[in-house]
């Protein structure tokens, strides 16, 4: 079997500290390394569309919501799990680029409604198509069954650690 960097790290710990069980590193070390590689690849793809990761997330959230009139900024913040300040900064950039609008709700002047512009909708439709193709490329070493098993295993782990929809 081909070895990776994590194999070397676990072996080094076994020699340096044989009293420790470094086996959790086989999973979490690999997840960490995979995350860094995937983030680098995703960042490069989003840059092709003139977007940062957070901007893509906002546009994708608005597109998934499929609400022609938009959604509240609060809903957007809750779905993105970042601070309202981070959402505000992302929205400022996306408004400046012409991809979203941000208007006060006529029914409640304290509520801000965020919506995709036609240019924003076109951009996210193109970007998400390329994003999914990129993710397929990143997972190409695993067949459909392996991808399904890994997705199930990771869901189980996330749920056990308190992750919620």
From TrEMBL:
Q: Which keywords has UniProt assigned to this entry?
A: DNA-binding, Transcription, Transcription regulation
Is Cytoplasm among this UniProt entry's keywords?
Answer: no
Q: Does the keyword DNA repair apply?
A: no
Q: Which domain of life is it from?
A: Bacteria
**Domain HTH marR-type per the UniProt entry, residue ranges:** 21-159
Which SMART domains does its entry note?
Answer: HTH_MARR (SM00347)
**Gene Ontology MF terms:** DNA binding; DNA-binding transcription factor activity
Q: What Pfam families does the annotation carry? A: MarR
Q: What is this protein called?
A: DNA-binding MarR family transcriptional regulator
